[in-house]
Each structure stands twice: as C-alpha cells, then as structure tokens.
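Many introductory courses stop at the sequence. We go one step further.
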Amino acid sequence: MRRSIDDAADAHPDGDPDKPRASWMVQLVDDCDGCGDLRVSLTVEDIGGAGLGVIAHLDPAGARRLRAALADALKEVGEPPGR
C-alpha cells in the first residue's frame, strides 16, 4: 500500500550550482516486511532526478521527532510552528 500525503519543490532559486533545487514527498507505505506496520516515507531528491533520491521510512516516533525539529526550526526563524 502506498498513499501520497503531500509533495512539493523547495523554494531555492534555480541556477545555484552549489545548491541544486530539490523536491520532497511524504507517503504512507507498508512495503517493509520486517517492520510489521505502516511507515511514514519521506523522499528527498534533486529536481530532475526522479528515482535517485533518499527515502527515509519513519516509524511514528521518528515522524514525530522530525515534526518537532521542523517546528523548532520554524520558531527559530520567527514563524508559527503549526499549520
């Protein structure tokens, strides 16, 4: 089972050779036989590099930790951490 939750490209401008643009995608997956449950899948890849990205299969604790880290980063730049 795969269910797409959201995806987007980053907001970095095109043309910077040191920081190529990237895309991200979040899905729910059950493709891990050893996991025994659903996982949150986070894929990050260069734009134009479909299939060459890095995929993280996060358990609920890992997904919450990532969510907290993003909320903390938003607070650091003066943005509200919620939706």
